[in-house]
Write a structure and sequence with these properties.
- With about 375 residues, this protein is α/β, with parallel strands linked by helices.
- The chain contains twelve helices and nine strands.
- Strands 1-2-3-4-5-6-8-9 form an eight-stranded parallel beta barrel, surrounded by five helices.
- α6 packs parallel to α8 and α11 packs parallel to α12.
- The structure holds alpha-D-galactopyranose.
């Protein structure tokens, strides 16, 4: 009798713990990335037209609560000809977001790439005048920002204005050539006028590298000094299994936060190859395998950066991935066209990779 009573208690305790672990496991399956990070920041993803109809859709709804248009809101997509706006994809993305309660980050209002040629040409094919270019910039920014007022909460206003060569400070783009440094401040002012409630960001890559960071800080300080309406800095975060290290990342976050700017991680992916600035052809001997070593390094890198993001949750207000899964990434085409990359948290079959489990199980680390 005595033994039986204890056996019974033991069996009940065993059953209860099994039930508990099953529930926890079920819960983990039911929760998506955004749920694990509910107390930290929204988790976003860059999408295109296909994402809204294909089988990635459920994965997107389950894991993310913020969206960026990968290409649909760039100048060349929205205004391919002067005065002719093409809203269809951008409208579908924003419509989907509003219906499904996603936040939307707008990307991007002024950039040297993916900008139509007509923007920089005068009536006779000569270089556009300063006055006309400024007027076109204003019209473009205000038409776009007003259309999505109240639906897009943050805009990447100027993208990649800092040169990769630290001695140059600003990139010698057409914008710079025609308008001088002032185009940056103007772009922010135009956007702010169009939607005073939108959070306005300067967005760029490699800005945790000390040389580039020094120039980004110089620009941001000068904008703040001139009272330009800028609210944050977008760290694109096209990183790799080789960089950044924790010290570089934390230093950058601290430096930007010290300017009283919000930080958004705007275009996160972890390439399995080293960073290269120039496009080039794939070498015949170049392997495309996702090796065990790459996988482990990627897991470690994702684990480290998310640990840092959580630590700085008071200043990091959004973390957005650039593309959904390893089925398609822009890195399959750049810098080496046709070389498969594996930079994201979901594999080609849309299943979570080991790196995914590493970053969602942070309480147990
Ligand atoms: C930059 C741009 C993005 C996108 C990526 C590559 O980071 O900001 O819009 O073009 O390059 O996909």
């Amino acid at each position: 009798m005595f033994l039986t009573k204890y056996k019974l208690k033991f069996l009940i305790a065993l059953a209860a713990s099994l039930l508990f672990f099953c529930c926890v496991a079920q819960q983990s399956k039911k929760r998506g990335l955004k749920d694990f990070y509910r107390n930290y920041f929204p988790v976003g993803v860059a999408i295109n037209k296909r994402s809204l109809v294909g089988d990635e859709l459920n994965l997107i709804k389950h894991n993310f609560n913020s969206l960026t248009a990968e290409n649909a809101m760039k100048m060349t997509s929205l205004q391919p000809k002067e005065g002719v706006f093409n809203w269809s994809t951008a409208d579908s993305i924003v419509g989907f977001a509003v219906k499904n309660k996603f936040k939307v980050r707008g990307h991007t209002l002024c950039w040297h790439n993916q900008t139509p040629e007509w923007m920089f040409l005068g009536a006779n094919g000569e270089q556009v005048s300063k006055e006309l270019l400024l007027q076109r910039l204003k019209i473009h920014i205000q038409t776009v920002v007003k259309r999505y007022r109240g639906k897009i909460y943050a805009w990447d206003v100027v993208n990649e204005a800092i040169d990769d060569n630290p001695n140059n400070y600003l990139r010698r783009s057409k914008w710079y050539e025609v308008l001088g440094e002032d185009y940056i401040a103007k772009a922010f002012e135009f956007a702010h006028e169009a939607d005073p409630n939108a959070q306005l960001f300067y967005n760029d890559y490699n800005i945790e590298r000390p040389d580039k960071m020094a120039n980004v800080l110089r620009l941001l300080k000068s904008l703040k000094q001139k009272d330009v309406p800028i609210h944050g800095v977008g760290m694109q975060s096209h990183w790799s299994i080789f960089e950044p290290d924790q010290l570089a990342l934390e230093t950058a976050i601290q430096q930007y936060a010290a300017l009283d700017l919000k930080i958004h991680i705007t275009e996160l992916d972890i390439s399995v190859y080293p960073w290269e600035a120039q496009e080039r052809k794939k070498r015949p001997d170049e392997s495309e395998a996702f090796t065990a070593e790459m996988e482990q390094k990627q897991i470690d890198k994702y684990e480290m950066i998310f640990k840092v993001f959580r630590k700085y949750k008071d200043v990091i207000e959004n973390v957005t991935f650039w593309n959904v899964s390893d089925r398609y990434s822009w890195l399959d085409f750049f810098p080496v066209s046709g070389r498969k990359n594996y930079p994201l948290l979901f594999n080609k079959n849309l299943q979570p990779k080991k790196a995914y489990w590493k970053i969602v199980n942070f309480k147990h680390n």
